[in-house]
Amino acid sequence: MRVKGIHTVKAKLADGTKRVYYYAWKGGPRINAEAGTPEFWAAYNKIIATRREHAVGSLGDVIDEYLVSGEFKAVSKSHQRALRSYLELIRKQFGTMPLRVIEDRRVRSDFRKWRDKFIETPRKADYAWTTLSRLMTFAIDRGHIAVNPCTGGKRLYDADRADKIWSADDLRAFLEIASVPLQRALMLALWTGQRQGDLLRLTWAAYDGKAIRLKQSKGKARVPIPVGGPIKEMLDAMQAERKKSVTILTNSRGQPWTGDGFRASWEKAYKKAGIEDLHFHDLRGTAVTRLALAGCTVPEIASITGHSLKTVQEILDKHYLGGRLELAEAAIKKLDAVYGRSTQTSK
Fold first, then answer.
1. Range list for CATH 1.10.443.10 in the chain
2. Separation of CA 4 from chain center
3. Sign of dihedral through CA atoms 141, 145, 149, 155?
4. CATH number for the segment(s) 168-334
5. Judging by DSSP bridges, how do beta strands 18-23 and 7-12 pair with one another?
6. Fewer CB in a 10 Å sphere around the end CB: N or C, the chain?
């Protein structure tokens, strides 16, 4: 189907299925209906009508410009999806706002009141504010406005994950109730220290029986991870599944996970296990701590997880302190083995 203005994107999914997606315009919202149907045209006309409501020189125009810009295309696909959802929230609330109004100092109060609508979900509130600020910065760079009314502003969500380490009891509780696909995801995260998105995209082609070779989406670092112990046993036992799926991790139907599907299943199992205030991403810090407890040096840990040497040290020093007691006990045992008998007090 070819219609002037509608942007078409052809995609091949992880399972080999080919899909065609339609957008109202390049960089515009997706038309979520079967092409050519009455529902399709109704959705298209509604989107176009909304776009026409924007006055020339409005914030909605800046959003349209940003969605087709190099700045937007430079971020990852998953980040783009998140940005789109928040940009649509901004468009709905402020799309018709003339750009000249943005330079009025009172507009900051309007933006803050809008942000505070999401105060019950602090992370969403912070992301909404950050996205709005990013849009303002883009508008300044393109010469549309002179000041960013969103500069500064205290975050509502405390992202400090100090002491957030999966203990042996947490791991045991989760593995006892989780499905096999979720158990495999946990094991890969625990033994490789990689991010959720990279693990969900990990293909069988990256595993040669001895090591996993992974290119991280963030930073684009190439990380070779030798496998052994439980993780090798798990992967080798899954060899029959190589013919069924491109990706190593699959859902209960044997299909590659979607990000939303995985998060929903993980949260359900997480709650059922009775685990509190731990995220999947905390497994990355747990992996770093476990490697340190096993006696690995900072360079050795960085070679596996893909962190910089500085970041690994910062993780051990600041953010993931759950292993401090174990590390201290190990150090005292070493000290005692060398100096214990020579420094005893007299009776």
1. 168-334
2. 35
3. negative
4. 1.10.443.10
5. antiparallel
6. C
